């Protein structure tokens, strides 16, 4: 592969994907792949692994073969690529024989740049399969979720073992293996099993700066969750719970509170599960309440929050689950409800029969989870340290760093509470005690209790503040709560030491958090316009039967609503709008923005926005080499042969022949009207003008209709580029 300059790669990134720059090691990885090196790329979930093989795929001749374990994920990726005007397809067991055949035909004829294949498509006798792959002339193999090949990884899939022969069978094709699995053993195992002789290793930071971590005491959890979701009715989120039954319960309660929630767990049949997953993907459900069975298959960029109703069994799992939030890079939240009782319960179950060693590992992992929950310091630092990264002690984006926690001496409050428990004979539950402390006029308070010295001495705190203090007293062993249905409270010896003033109590309490503005510097977005743009996008998505984010991501809308573009050229400078999307969707968005600006007397703020690298479209095509294969075709054509005849005689495909002829379009050696009639040429050029689409054929065909052939469009496009494109 010829060397492609960094500038060119930036242009291609802007053109095909509409992004302003590369993230993490994307650029280095892409250059390695284009140089034909084997690569192992380790990047956190949401880090941007896909671009690492998608961009090389579109820049190279032939097609890239992507091995991906999850059918739902495959469909997402293919939808996303097509929405960017990049021809892609997949082969998996959900397709009919005919569908598969037509995909294979398209792949063979060079109409596809990326072909996704499920590993179970590789038969036990793999030799014919590799013969088949060879006929596709692959430019590279991308192996997604590469940790599935390792029995050390957390998601071993035996089908992946068949990939071991790829390198032996087709050593000249570069392999890029991608995973979010950080541990060294798995990494080595991937390299060994794929038999990569000398792969380049790229390790990215696991930090997810846009995710804000919170840990809350587990009390009145559902009330909190309902309140939280009501404050953000348009957002998507996932709630993780440990048991199947609790996912169903929580979902039912959320629905009863008017929240559009569904549940998901491994006990449902696969059809039901796929249905729920798809509906969530299409934003038909706002919230999914799920066991950890949910997530591997979902690649939804606009998940705004992940809530852990119960703790995870280990930090790895927790981090992966929270990592499903904010894949689009927008501010997102991870909230965990912690109770020490949950850890105790889980430790009881953390027993692998006849394997004391494994049981001990599970218990240690639970202990680490508890350490995290009770950590007095930056949450992010704890997590990244766990994964072996060095970071500062202050991230500015977790509950600790935002100062939402503070310590205070709560001895006096603890004494009030303990005293109320003792003076009522240790026969009542928490709610009764709190009512008593707050001097409630509730009829259930025994008349003699209103005579107590403790009656009404707790009016200084709100009900939930008393609950929080009581929870901490229970956690700390100062108060004992019975396990029966009518749980009552009793002061322990430790509790008595506080009552007798022999000990003091410091509590961690919550402060009110001020919301951080989304865009701290520069202009703010227009919230009402954002809503309107979401509606415009939703309509487009429905027409095309794709999820909303496949049209453009939330952050693109956010930028539109912030910078107020007024032309297609402006839109090309908005994140996520490559040339294709700008041409295809720009007009409708501009219309909505224009109306909004008019009504609200606003001016464009595009001058705040940094410009993207100019797209490659300004390059003039190079002339074909003299005496080369394209010249042979040209001579035959000028001798009066048709495209089909030349193809037959030369043993090449008609598409190749048209490609040859296209390279002469706009030169005086080829009479273009022999290939494209003047009327059609005018129509095509008009469309190129109005859309600004000057490199890809497919978007033109989408507008002009099927009666226009690809070859014809390609020739007209080359003609345009050579004769007018540079003006
Ligand atoms: P991964 O596979 O590593 O979990 P993806 O490839 O799905 O991550 O990328 C996550 C999100 O980040 C996607 O919405 C993707 O479009 C976006 N993204 C990837 N690379 C860039 C980039 N260079 N600039 C802006 N957004 C990007
Ligand atoms: Zn922090």
| Main sheet attributes: strand count, strand direction, barrel closure | 7 strands, parallel
Average pLDDT, rounded to a whole number, is 86
- Taken from the alpha-carbon principal axes, the silhouette is elongated
CATH superfamily descriptor of the largest domain = P-loop containing nucleotide triphosphate hydrolases
Word description of this protein:
This protein is of the alpha/beta class. It has five domains: 6-203, 3-Layer(aba) Sandwich (Rossmann fold), CATH 3.40.50.300; 211-402, Rossmann fold, CATH 3.40.50; 405-510, Winged helix-like DNA-binding domain superfamily/Winged helix DNA-binding domain (Arc Repressor Mutant, subunit A, Orthogonal Bundle); 527-608, DNA polymerase, domain 1; 629-723, Arc Repressor Mutant, subunit A (Orthogonal Bundle). The protein is 44% helix and 11% strand. The protein contains 30 helices and 17 strands. The strands form four sheets. Strands 3-4-2-5-6-1-7 form a seven-stranded parallel sheet, sandwiched between helices. Strands 8-13-12-9-11-10 form a six-stranded parallel sheet, sandwiched between helices. The chain has a two-stranded antiparallel ribbon with strand order 14-17. Helix 11 (270-281) links the parallel strand 10 and strand 11 (287-290). Helix 20 packs antiparallel against helix 24. The longest helix has 22 residues, at 579-600. The protein is elongated. The two termini are 31 Å apart. Residues 512-521 and 615-620 have low confidence and may be disordered. Residues 378-380, 395, 398, 400-401 line the site of zinc ion. Zinc ion binds next to helix 15.
């Amino acid at each position: 592969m010829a060397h492609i300059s960094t500038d060119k790669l930036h242009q291609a990134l802007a053109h095909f994907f509409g992004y302003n720059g590369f993230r993490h090691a994307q650029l280095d990885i892409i250059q390695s792949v284009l140089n034909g090196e084997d690569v192992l790329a380790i990047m956190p979930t949401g880090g941007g692994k896909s671009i690492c093989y998608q961009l090389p795929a579109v820049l190279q001749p032939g097609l890239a073969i992507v091995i991906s374990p999850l059918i739902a994920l495959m469909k997402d990726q293919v939808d996303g690529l097509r929405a960017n005007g990049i021809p892609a397809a997949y082969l998996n067991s959900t397709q009919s024989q005919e569908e598969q055949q037509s995909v294979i035909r398209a792949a063979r004829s060079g109409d596809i740049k990326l072909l996704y294949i499920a590993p179970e498509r590789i038969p036990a006798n793999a030799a014919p399969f590799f013969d088949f792959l060879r006929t596709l002339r692959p430019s590279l193999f991308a192996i997604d979720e590469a940790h599935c090949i390792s029995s050390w990884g957390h998601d071993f899939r035996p089908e992946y073992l068949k990939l071991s022969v790829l390198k032996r069978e087709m050593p000249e094709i570069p392999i890029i293996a991608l995973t979010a699995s950080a541990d060294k053993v798995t990494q080595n195992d991937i390299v060994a099993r794929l038999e990569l002789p000398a792969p380049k290793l790229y390790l990215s930071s696991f930090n997810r700066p846009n995710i804000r971590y919170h840990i809350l005491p587990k009390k009145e959890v559902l009330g909190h969750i309902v309140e939280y979701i009501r404050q953000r009715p348009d957002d998507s989120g996932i709630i993780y719970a440990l048991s199947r039954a609790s996912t169903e319960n929580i979902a039912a309660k959320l629905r009863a509170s008017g929240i559009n929630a569904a549940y998901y767990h491994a006990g449902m049949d696969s059809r039901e599960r796929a249905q729920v997953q798809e509906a969530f993907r299409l934003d038909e459900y706002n919230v999914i309440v799920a066991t950890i069975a949910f997530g591997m298959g979902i690649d939804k960029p606009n998940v705004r929050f992940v809530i852990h109703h119960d703790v995870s069994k280990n930090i790895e799992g927790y981090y992966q689950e929270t990592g499903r939030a904010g894949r689009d890079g927008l501010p997102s939240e991870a909230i965990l409800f912690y109770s020490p009782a949950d850890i105790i319960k889980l430790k009881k179950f953390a027993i692998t029969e006849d394997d004391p060693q494994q049981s001990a590992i599970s218990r240690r992992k639970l202990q680490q989870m508890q350490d995290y929950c009770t950590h007095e310091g930056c949450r992010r630092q704890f997590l990244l340290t766990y994964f072996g990264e060095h970071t500062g002690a202050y991230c500015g984006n977790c509950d600790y760093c935002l100062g939402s926690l503070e310590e205070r001496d709560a001895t006096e409050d603890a004494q009030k509470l303990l005293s109320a428990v003792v003076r009522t004979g240790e026969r009542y539950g928490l709610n009764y005690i709190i009512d008593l402390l707050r001097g409630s006029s509730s009829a259930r308070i025994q008349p003699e209790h209103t005579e107590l010295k403790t009656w009404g001495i707790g009016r200084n705190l709100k009900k939930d503040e008393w609950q929080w203090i009581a929870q901490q007293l229970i956690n700390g062993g100062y108060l004992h709560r019975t396990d029966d249905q009518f749980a009552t409270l009793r002061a322990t010896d430790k509790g008595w030491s506080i009552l007798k003033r022999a000990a003091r109590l410091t509590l961690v309490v919550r402060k009110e958090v001020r919301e951080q503005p989304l865009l701290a510097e520069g202009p703010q977005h227009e919230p009402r316009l954002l809503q309107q743009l979401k509606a415009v996008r939703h309509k487009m998505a429905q027409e095309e039967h794709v999820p909303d984010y496949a049209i453009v991501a939330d952050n693109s809308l956010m930028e539109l609503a912030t910078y107020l573009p007024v032309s297609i050229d402006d839109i090309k400078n908005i994140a996520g709008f490559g040339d294709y999307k700008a041409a295809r969707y720009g007009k409708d968005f501009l219309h909505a923005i224009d109306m909004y600006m008019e009504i609200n007397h606003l001016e464009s703020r595009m001058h705040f926005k940094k410009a993207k690298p100019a797209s490659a479209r300004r390059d003039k095509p190079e002339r074909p080499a003299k005496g080369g294969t394209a010249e042979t075709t040209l001579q035959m054509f000028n001798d009066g042969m048709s495209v089909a005849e030349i193809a037959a005689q030369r043993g090449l495909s008609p598409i190749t022949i048209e490609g040859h002829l296209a390279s002469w379009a706009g030169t005086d050696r080829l009479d273009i009207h022999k290939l494209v009639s003047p009327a059609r040429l005018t129509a095509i050029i008009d469309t190129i003008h109005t859309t600004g689409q000057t490199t890809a054929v497919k978007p033109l065909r989408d507008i002009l209709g099927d009666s226009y052939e690809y070859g014809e469009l390609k020739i007209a496009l080359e003609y345009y580029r050579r004769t007018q494109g540079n003006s």
